[in-house]
Amino acid sequence: MTSHERVLKALNHQKADRLPVDYVATPEFHRNIKEYLGLEKDEQLLSYLGADIRRVKADYIGPPELNGESFYKPGKDFLGVVWEPKENEFGTYNEIAYHPLAHVRSVEEVEDYSWPDPDWYDESNLKKEIERINQDDRYAIIFYTEGAYETPWYMRGLERFMMDLVECPQIAEAISRKAAQFYKERTVRAIEATDGMIDLIGSGGDIGTQRGMMISPELWRKHIKPHSAELITPFKEMGYHTFYHSCGSIIPVMEDFIEMGLDIMSPIQPGAEGMDAENLYRLFGGRITFHGGLDEQYLLPKGTPHDVEAETKRIMGTLGKSGGYIVSAAHAVQPDTPVENILAMYRAAGSLREN
Asked: How far apart are the first and last CA of the chain?
């Protein structure tokens, strides 16, 4: 069975030869695991882990003084947000130092802002890249389009954007709408350039916290959902499978995402309120495919390989009961996570290619 077939089985809530697996990690952990295994190339690592999903992106060809990848790199990004590196004992994260829309007081100012141009991205590389990826096997290919919630607060400032949702929602909606329009156009161009070779369209934005949602479900539905839906529903209607990333507890709006046409919810943060595997399967099993769910707050960084292997099998038996589960950490694997624990996770999933 190919990786592509395996992921399609999960999307259709059907049993496969094994549950599909995915891999996403911070740069520090990614270097650690390749060094540990003596592997040089990313594709060698993905093959060793048995990862069934591959990510592709268009080349940034916009103004050279801007960063085309947002928070992944320091400096001013394509939106005008400025990111500065902040180090801790394990790794480096980029944090926002400047919000370019913090000063605006009207919808007109939002409209007049120098928004990025989709022409700043070149999709001509995508088809050849997917052909290269699929030369020995066929994988599930995802193109990630970003979202209509985090981008607005990156540009406006989190506190100010939250206040906007109550005091001047027209400004919040204008920023969300402009962001969604840009990301939607960029994704449509990627689709047109690849002749159906993309399988999954990903979007996201963390709307949950450890204890509940960041904003009330009512505010989200009224002001954010219509713009988030523009990055899910049209692509679902075009025949593509859809993927959304949100950390935290998002139980109150899971039905909304299902109604919008979402296929995969990620990353399933199990320590957040209501996001334990049993509750999720009871409420939504068979109607949405789960991605993630293996705790990156405590289990993976602090547990033993035995703990990880046992919990992986338990989660697989719960979320994967009807086949609708993709095994993965509940976020990008963090720098303080022991390599042995991640290998234990993939070993339990039956995907690790040790021989």
From this structure: 19
Fold of 3-349: TIM Barrel (3.20.20)
Distance CA 145, CA 186 (A): 8
Of the candidates 281, 326, 292, the residue with the CA atom closest to the CA atom of residue 140: 326
* pLDDT tens-place string over residues 198-228: 999 999 999 999 999 999 999 999 999 999 9
Domain boundaries, the chain: 3-349
Distance CA 31, CA 206 (A): 26
**pLDDT of res. 355:** 55
Convert 296-348 into a string of H (helix), E (strand) and C (coil): CCCHHHHCCHHHHHHHHHHHHHHHCCCCCEEEEECCCECCCCCHHHHHHHHHH
Closest to 72 in 3D by CA, of 83, 80, 63, 60: 83
pTM: 0.97
DSSP 115: P
Rounded Cα gap, residues 205 and 150, in angstroms: 5
Collapsing DSSP to helix, strand or coil, 197 comes out as: coil
Reported as a single tens digit per residue, the pLDDT across 180-197 is 999 999 999 999 999 999
Peptide bond into 64 cis (omega under 30): no
- CB neighbours of 80 closer than 8 A, spacing ≥ 6? 100, 113, 114, 155
